[in-house]
Amino acid sequence: MRTFGVEEEFLIVDPDNGSPVPLAGDIVRLHGAGPQGVAPPFGPTLAIELQQEQIEVITSPHSSLSALGAEIRAGRSYADSLARRAGARIAALATSPLAIAPHATNTERYDALLEKFAMTAREQLTCGYHVHVSVDSDEEGVAVLDRIRSWLPVLTALSSNSPFWNGSDSGYASFRTQAWNRWSSAGPTDVFGSAAAYHSLVADLSATGVIMSPDFDARLSARHPTVEIRVSDVCLDARDALLIAALVRALVDTAAREWKSGQRPDMVSVPVLRQATWRASRFGLHGELLHPRTHKPATARHVLAALHSHVRDALEGTGDAHYANEGLQRILSQGTGAARQRQAHQRTGSLAGVVAYATGVTHLEPIDHERTDQPYFAAASGTAALVAS
Fold first, then answer.
1. Which residues cross the membrane (predicted)?
2. Torsions phi, psi of 52, nearest 5?
3. Which residue, 92, 69, 72, is CA-closest to 161?
4. Contact status, residue 93 vs residue 358, Cβ threshold 8 Å
5. Residue 192 near residue 142 (C-beta atoms within 8 A)
6. What is the pLDDT of residue 33?
7. Which contiguous run of DSSP H or E holds residue 231?
8. Fold of 4-370
9. Cα-to-chain-centroid distance, residue 325
10. Per residue in 176-225, pLDDT tens?
């Protein structure tokens, strides 16, 4: 059983007006400030990111989906408890609905990023969701990277949770993807073929003097024996975050088995993969995606069915099949984070209302208009026919 863990980035928001507030330093200080600031015994770790308006929560590695899910929920709750002590809340929003001029974190690394990348770095207040899955070696890890490329845009569509940017509707389901891809090494990669080729490219990129580390959609971790998949928005709903983690582990398992059996990777070009990413970012599950096998437009429902079929054996092997089945159906009926944010905007008439709604969903706090006999949240009105069958 492969182990996996996640990194979730959250906005720190004012509970009254929804604006992001630069309190990451205060939250991290509270994290180590004694008994009231002690994390649960099993984790998580808190970390500061590029901007002071965001905080990262990092889980431990786990082998079971239930254990990872427990830590994801505990991590959200713990970070929020510290934020409350600082006068704020945390919200699982991949971009801020309200306009904001972020406050950069002053460290040697981040100062260098700001100096080099200028406005790209200054404006980069985005919250992603990274999943780490263990691999036996760099060779296996690169073989996995070569074989999951075509499936990654589907994860972008499933996790899409950033429709608003700079105080207005961007028209995209995941505008975070658009903002993130302004970094010079962000995006999909070619098939490497070997660990040596991977490391050679990273060395060549580093030698340009532009990047500090590659921002590929998926990469070998520099610190852990894992592959790191980085294409997802932070998920509004913790259950969706756990679903993405289950699917990522299943993709890694499936790719490793293909490699061991001698199956060659799909040699689709990077420019075509960029179009798949763009479609996923623009439409989420509301429009056509590029099918990961044919690279032609197909309904989101058919693309999700293809993903599910591709990883079904791996999901059954880890015991995650039932959770994945229910999770995919829930998102199809209830909507992605982006769809739910837009519904909240229609109901409340304000972007501050979107933040208030998102804060509740982040922590699975029941909201009257969504309360039913089902646990947590039921399908919001108007989303049952999210995609055509």
1. none
2. -75, -10
3. 92
4. yes
5. yes
6. 59
7. strand 226-233
8. Creatine Kinase; Chain A, domain 2 (3.30.590)
9. 19
10. 999 999 998 999 999 999 999 999 999 999 999 998 889 999 999 989 99
> How far are the Cα atoms of 106, 119, 354 from residue 316, in angstroms, in the given order?
46, 46, 37
Q: Comparing 20-29, 32-41, 217-226, which segment has the lowest mean pLDDT?
A: 32-41
Burial of 177 (0-12, 13-18, 19+ CB in 10 A): buried
Letter for the amino acid at 163? P
The residue-averaged pLDDT of 262-282 equals: 98
Contact 152, 181 (CB under 8 A): no
pLDDT at 171: 97
Helix ranges, the chain (H): 24-31, 65-85, 108-117, 119-122, 138-148, 152-159, 175-180, 195-207, 238-260, 270-283, 300-318, 321-334, 337-348, 351-362
What pLDDT, on a 0 to 100 scale, did the predictor assign at position 364? 82
Number of neighbouring beta carbons within 10 Å of residue 360? 17
CA–CA dist 300, 297 (Å, integer): 9
Structure-token pair, residue 195:
């660990």
Q: What is the reported pLDDT for 377?
A: 26
- Please spell the DSSP secondary structure of 244-297, one letter per residue: HHHHHHHHHHHHHHHHHTTPPPP---HHHHHHHHHHHHHHTTSS-EE-TTT-SE
Q: Would you say 234 and 92 are in contact if contact means Cβ atoms under 8 Å apart? A: yes
Under 8 Å between Cβ of 22 and 100: no
Domain boundaries, the chain: 4-370
Instruction: Give the ranges where 2-64 is alpha helix by DSSP (H).
Output: 24-31
CA distance linking residue 293 with residue 276, whole number of Å: 11
Q: Distance between CA 8 and CA 19 in Å, rounded?
A: 20
Alpha-carbon dihedral of residues 74, 248, 4, 262, nearest 10 degrees? 170
Q: Would you state the structure tokens that stand for residue 131, as one six-digit string?
A: 């999943």
Indicate whether 2 pLDDT > 50.
Answer: yes
* pLDDT at residue 67 is higher than 70: yes
* Alpha-helical regions (H) of 89-137: 108-117, 119-122
